[in-house]
Amino acid sequence: MKNITDSFLCLGSWPSAGSFVFNTDILATNPINLSVVLGILVFFGKGVLRDLLDNRKQKIWRTIRNSEELQENAIEQLEKAQARLRKVETEADLFRVNGYSEIKREKLNLINSIYTTLEQLENYKNEAIDFEQQRVINQVRQRVLQQALQGALGTLNSSLNNELHLRTVSANIGMFGMMK
């Protein structure tokens, strides 16, 4: 094992005075070199590192603030959308209720109109039946009258002789002459 003096860079009045020697033992000099480099980095790099961390911190805070603002805007828009949805649902319910009542009203109007039309058709049917009955009655009357007249003419023609015929004609002419 080496002396403790072998592991340091020898400067000044050490036993081998006047000599300047580098220690080439890596295992012994590495922790020292690392501590020196880290010390220099900390001394000179702490400002840069602090600036980088401050910048990063500010970006994070800005991002958080922007996210919170976006969240608030989204919440406001959601509330507005929910309010519009409630309004539209209320209007839809109103239209639905009005639509159902309008449908019922139209249904009743249609039923009433159909009943009115049926009554009119019933009246037309009854009038047509009455008209046909009157027509048939008139036809029967005409036939009965015609048959009665034919029967009377037949009876008159068979029972009328020349003498009776001449008296009837003379009487009618006499009545006609008196009327003048």
Automatic annotation (TrEMBL):
GO cellular component entries: chloroplast thylakoid membrane; proton-transporting ATP synthase complex
Superkingdom of source: Eukaryota
GO molecular function terms listed in the Swiss-Prot or TrEMBL record: proton-transporting ATP synthase activity, rotational mechanism
Main location: membrane
Membrane topology: Single-pass membrane protein
Membrane-spanning intervals of the chain: 32-49
Keywords of this entry: ATP synthesis, CF(0), Chloroplast, Coiled coil, Hydrogen ion transport, Ion transport, Membrane, Plastid, Thylakoid, Transmembrane, Transmembrane helix, Transport
Compartment(s) of residence: Membrane; Plastid, Chloroplast thylakoid membrane
Coiled coil (residue ranges): 64-98
Protein family according to the UniProt entry: Belongs to the ATPase B chain family.
Subunit structure: F-type ATPases have 2 components, F(1) - the catalytic core - and F(0) - the membrane proton channel. F(1) has five subunits: alpha(3), beta(3), gamma(1), delta(1), epsilon(1). F(0) has four main subunits: a(1), b(1), b'(1) and c(10-14). The alpha and beta chains form an alternating ring which encloses part of the gamma chain. F(1) is attached to F(0) by a central stalk formed by the gamma and epsilon chains, while a peripheral stalk is formed by the delta, b and b' chains.
Role according to the record: Component of the F(0) channel, it forms part of the peripheral stalk, linking F(1) to F(0). F(1)F(0) ATP synthase produces ATP from ADP in the presence of a proton or sodium gradient. F-type ATPases consist of two structural domains, F(1) containing the extramembraneous catalytic core and F(0) containing the membrane proton channel, linked together by a central stalk and a peripheral stalk. During catalysis, ATP synthesis in the catalytic domain of F(1) is coupled via a rotary mechanism of the central stalk subunits to proton translocation.
Annotated PANTHER family: ATP SYNTHASE SUBUNIT B, CHLOROPLASTIC (PTHR34264)
Other notes: In plastids the F-type ATPase is also known as CF(1)CF(0).
Protein name per its UniProtKB record: ATP synthase subunit b, chloroplastic
Source organism of this protein record: Decorsea schlechteri
